[in-house]
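User: structure tokens for this one?
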Amino acid sequence: MSIRTVISSNKKISGASAARHGAVLIREAIAERGRANIIVATGASQFEMLQTLVGEELPWNRVTVFHLDEYVGLPITHPASFRQYLWERFHRLLPNPPNQFHYINGESDPEAECDRLAALITGHPIDVCFAGIGENGHLAFNDPPADFQTSRPYLVVNLDEACRRQQLGEGWFSSLDAVPRQAISMSIRQILKSRSIILTVPDLRKAEAVRNTLERPISPDVPASILQTHVGTTLYLDPPSASLLK
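Assistant:
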């Protein structure tokens, strides 16, 4: 098995291509079952993809949306809140409301929130997971060494320093100390249950993670490498993020 890789001339085209691919898959799911279930991610890597996805002509009232990850203890009013990100860059821009949008709330009782989300997603097989890959190779907030075994759909995870420095470097926080040390993340095994996984991974700072994901043996030390086992994964790159590939 191998991850299908698409390299575009720049990250705007790459993100748009990923969105259009996902839109086709959403339409196919709705044609097949009358509805679709998707996962959406956040971060700087998803800007261009989401910008195109919200403009696609889709019957959003037949789409149920799940949220990939969120910080523990961060209020929705914080500029780095992923709930705020998804509302501002995706949810509020849709031409009509989705059937349901299941945000992650990590503010009060994260373990109870994991249980709540698990009960919801168990009844909604995922058609398309839109995601990225972290600079440390993480998938969602499953930092290395990732748990490949847990069957829990969502779990509370500890964020390693490389992950936290990435969040600081992207400008979401004013200092490293301000970056939360825990998050609620969709688990690796839950992500792998998705029928299709569309990864949008631009920028030079992701080049090493991309190479490790595609060319290194599957290992919890490179969490995204597990996608080598998934038959429906497509990785959208720009020239800088693909620059270390053989």
